[in-house]
Specification:
Elements lengths: L13 H11 L9 H8 L10 H19 L9 H8 L2 H11 L4 E8 L15 E10 L2 E5 L1 H5 E4 L5 E6 L2 E7 L5 E4 L6 E3 L1 H4 L3 E3 L14 H6 L2 E2 L1 H5 L2 E3 L6 E3 L4 E8 L7 E10 L14 E5 L3 E7 L4 E10 L7 E10 L22 H5 L2 E2 L7 E3 L14 E7 L7 E8 L7 E8 L4 E8 L5 E9 L7 E9 L2 H51 L1
Helix pairs in contact: 1-3, 3-5, 4-5
Amino acid sequence: MSHIHSYNEDVDVTLFHTIDQHAQKVPMHNIYSEDGLMQYLSVPIGLQDKNRNIYLARSVIAFLSEVNIARRKSTYNVARSMTEIIYGSPTDSFRTLCCNAGIEAEVITGKSKGSNYQPGVQEEDCLQESKWCAFKSSGTWHLVHPQWAIVSMYGFGYGGQLIEGDGRINIQSRLQVHGQTINAFNDFWFCTKPEIFIHHCYPDNSDWQLLPGPNKTSGQFFSIPFLQQGYYEAGLELLSEYSCSLSSTKGVCIITFSDKHVARNLEFSYTLTLKSGDISGVRWDDLSQLVMFIPEVDMYTFKINLPVKGMYLFEIMVIADDIVTNASCADFKITCTEACTNCRKVPFNVGIEGFGYGNEAKKAGLKHPSEKTPVLVLNSPELEVGSDCEDEIIDFQIDSDRVNEVEFTSDIIGGVNREAVRTSTYVDGEKGRLVVKAGMKKTGDFTLAIKAREKEQGADFKTVLNYMLTTDSGEREFYRKHEKVVKQRRREITKEQKVVDKTRRKRELLMEIEELNTSTSALW
């Protein structure tokens, strides 16, 4: 089953392309009546196909998307009975055409998180009165948001004091931007799983939540994470606190996602905005970066250091191979009641490349790092330059087929008194291991960059992973504690999914029994 859509695996999604193309070429004479239109739209669809209702509903959405684009350019010369279909509400038109095709369909009213919504806000004034649809196929109701399926909004932006974006301090005031609507077919809102739909739309009649588990209360609707299309398309799972409204601890907040697909190249961008609070007393020259991004092989973590008390918004965007644009992923409200006293701990403009062992290091042939956290704790030297301290070692296994292909080096970047830190790198050919040493002559915080290049190509060295160097062992303990939280959350997710799968399977069995009884009755 799709991780986004509610139809079963036996639905031929490759047929959707044919259906969409056919719907976009509807001749003018076919839109003089609902019957003529639906006869045309049903041409690519088999009469006895068990998923016929899915395909017909898809053809209706594709048609509504096409006329929504075309009517901006020209006026349709249609019968009066069809005027309301073409120029009316997409939701009402979807239901009307589905019913004409013999599909049971309903219009659902409720509230949605539209353009005025901001995560963490509890007032219903920030929600929009909305309506969407459900249609039935093989005994199962499927949710569709016709308006969102044919019109998308781009360029929306929260107002406030922008502090950081993509690893760079960038102070500027921003006004809220409402964005603009673009007529485009968005498949995401066709047969969207109820457990995804509920993050955005709350029906007046709770029966229409159609969730495989317990219904959500209105309070839960406000508090659940504001997870958006890019989150689901990228196949992410939120492993940190499951809420859109987070609170920092001693000025630090952590957000972690797992990657369900693993080993894919996911790229992220983000913005940190202060909505309320006073930053006038912050010495920005002492800060290079507030958000520490940690891209692991199967997890992505944002550690956010907050310099002043106040309310913040943290917006995350994601890019994946199968996501064309920089898609909105998740937005969070963060409340800070105690400012971070050690914001300097995040060194030094490595940007969205991030800290710790991740896919770039894996592609370079490195595996099994001896230090699992993004922090390498060094022995603490005396404060005077010139003192010495024993080096700490971090090592990696190198893939056997990459040992002779890749060359490695290391460097210290950022920070004051770089000359007070040393690093060296060598490959142990017999054991097939990369060994990196680092030591300090003076206490401070630095970044250790481990770099690689293909030997034969003679290209420049490229950073494949960074470690934060520090003498503060508490920094590493912070990540180890967070690792325990993540493991607990994984166990909870597994348990919740088992309940959902069991409930869904029970419903499917009941439907199969009902269909069997109906068939048996027909025989008698």
